[in-house]
């Protein structure tokens, strides 16, 4: 049990987020740089909770106009027609276009909201010092981090569509204000993931084990 309670930070060891090397700072230095990739080493990310909450709240605020405002405006001889993300999902739904409709629904509505909820859950449980389901929470964080790499796909698709479909004066497509807010949601959630330090999840376990030892020895 004593070995399980000892963490790398308690041993003065630092894990590099760039290459994963476990090393110890130079004598006399509290934190240093990775000897392999020269990345700055930190025992814990500074102000991780505060910065993650700030980015997450900003993402949640931008999520509303991203779904309410139009993301694309199509101009034809019959006039201009603006569509929100959900309207685009409905328009794409057809016997042949339903796979694309589902992709847009999942990538543009379900995944951003799931990322916001997942990060909020991680923040709340970690700040409360929860020690339950730590393995599942780490897996959740890694999944959110992995999905974040593909979050800009929908923005790129809309941008390319607006750039390619320019048949003036017959037809043209322009990005709407909702696309800007959607891109802001993606960026803020990515920054929130990067700001969150998953090592904080395990600090509660170490603190609880240390407290139990003090009670036992007392």
Number of DSSP strand runs? 6
Largest sheet: 4 strands, antiparallel
Shape: elongated
State the helix count: 8
CATH names the topology of the largest domain as: Butyryl-CoA Dehydrogenase, subunit A, domain 3
Order of neighbouring strands in the sheet with most strands:
4-3-6-5
CATH architecture of the largest domain: Up-down Bundle
Using only C-alpha atoms, the radius of gyration works out to: 23 Å
Q: What is the C-level CATH assignment of the largest domain?
A: Mainly Alpha
Arithmetic mean of pLDDT: 78
Give the proportion of residues in helices.
Answer: 55-70%
Q: Strand pairing plus helix content: what structural class?
A: alpha+beta
Q: Could you give the topology of this structure?
A:
Layout: H1 2-5, E1 14-15, E2 22-23, H2 48-68, E3 72-76, E4 79-83, H3 85-92, H4 98-127, H5 134-147, H6 153-164, E5 166-167, E6 171-175, H7 177-195, H8 199-217
Antiparallel strand pairs: 1-2, 3-4, 3-6, 5-6
What does this 3D model show about the protein?
The chain has 218 residues and is α+β, with helices and mostly antiparallel strands. The chain folds into two domains: 1-43, no CATH class; 47-217, Butyryl-CoA Dehydrogenase, subunit A, domain 3 (Up-down Bundle). Helix content is 58%, strand content 10%. The protein has eight helices and six strands. The strands form two sheets. It has a four-stranded antiparallel sheet with strand order 4-3-6-5. A hairpin with a 6-residue loop joins β1 and β2 (22-23). α2 packs antiparallel against α7. The chain is elongated and about 75 Å long. The protein starts with a helix and ends with a helix. Mean pLDDT is 78; it is low at 210-217.
């Amino acid at each position: 049990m004593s070995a399980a309670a000892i963490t790398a930070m308690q041993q003065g060891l630092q894990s590099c987020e760039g290459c994963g090397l476990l090393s110890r700072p130079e004598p006399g230095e509290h934190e240093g740089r990775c000897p392999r990739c020269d990345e700055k080493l930190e025992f814990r990310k500074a102000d991780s909770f505060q910065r993650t909450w700030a980015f997450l709240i900003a993402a949640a605020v931008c999520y509303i106009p991203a779904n309410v405002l139009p993301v694309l405006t199509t101009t034809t001889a019959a006039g201009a027609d603006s569509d929100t993300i959900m309207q685009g999902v409905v328009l794409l739904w057809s016997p042949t276009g339903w796979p694309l409709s589902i992709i847009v629904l999942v990538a543009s509505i379900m995944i951003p909201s799931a990322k916001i909820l997942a990060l909020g859950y991680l923040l709340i449980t970690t700040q409360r010092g929860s020690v339950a389901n730590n393995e599942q929470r780490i897996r959740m964080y890694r999944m959110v981090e992995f999905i974040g790499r593909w979050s800009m796909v929908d923005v790129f698709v809309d941008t390319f569509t607006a750039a390619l479909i320019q048949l003036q004066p017959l037809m043209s497509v322009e990005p709407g204000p909702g696309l800007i807010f959607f891109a802001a949601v993606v960026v803020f959630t990515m920054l929130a993931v990067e700001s969150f330090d998953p090592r904080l999840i395990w600090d509660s376990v170490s603190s609880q084990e240390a407290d139990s030892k003090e009670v036992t020895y007392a």
